[in-house]
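dumping this here before i forget
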Amino acid sequence: MSSITLENIRKSYGRNTPPAIGNLNMEIGSAEFLCLLGPSGCGKTTTLRMIAGLEHPTEGRILVDGKPIVSVDEGIFTVPEKRNMGLVFQNYALWPHMTIRENVAFGLVLRKTPAPERNAVVDQVMTKLGIAQYASRYPAQLSGGQQQRVALARMLALNPSVILLDEPLSNLDAKLRLEMRSELKRIHAEAGSTIVFVTHDQWEAMTLATTIAVMSEGALQQVGTPDDIYERPANRFVAEFVGSLPINIIERSDAEPAPLCRWLDGLLAHFALAGAPVASAGIRPEAVRLSSLNDEDAKRCAAGQGTIVDVVPTGGSWIVELDIEGVQFFAITTDSPSKRTGDSIHFWVERQNLHLFDREKNRIAQ
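structure:
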């Protein structure tokens, strides 16, 4: 188990191009399961590859347990094989001419581990990952999920202090992805290794990580627990990126406000927030209630009214699309809606479910 520190990391691929990573500072705790989350091109894989030693930072330092393994100013660069880190690629990178057993043992062979010890380790990790029965097969004879387990077994056989995973589940179908998420959580619990996991899939990050680091355009947007990221987004980007159904964003305007803006102004006044420098507000669809207010609710909520455009069942819940005088608005309900397309319906929200942002799109504390 090792901690990792990134200090003022910058990565540029040329003078005339924006930096892929710009002044990144981050602490990854010992035995932490950290997910680097963000859209394609945000710099998360580049960050992982710099930790692994496959990329050289342009500036900055990387420390493991307080000792620098990379320091541009000091001319320090520890080669990848000396970092005691295991890396699993997105495309598995298995040797097609080797059997499964030979693939799993490959790193141990390079380390010149004695055969008896090597065989014992290989048997152990293959049994744990449920691939012992495929030992004599070749990668082409296995399914994608089985090949993923082989790649994990090859990495785990080396007993690394840090496990680096670059979107390892992206090539699997939904059922296998679910199985492999459970497998990764079990590996983390049993091995206690520090894990850095790159993904653009927010639900992978939410269900796997102890800590999530959200990135955009080479910059760190927020680091926190899954609950922090979802319930207290630091800015508009995080709020809009995280969530299977996009968050409802209401923009305020100095000009003649749209109906939804007028409702927001009334909402802010209701919650005594009218004087706050609010430029926009976000309301997650699952926080929107679709029913009439009783007297007690009315004291802590503010209601609006819209027309149902569509009702989409998703199995156990329903997505309700509303039209509020030409503005699209979404709600999610676990109760089967009694109203249908074209019907008018009331909606309301509670104060704690209102995310407020200033003109720089940063969160306003309430």
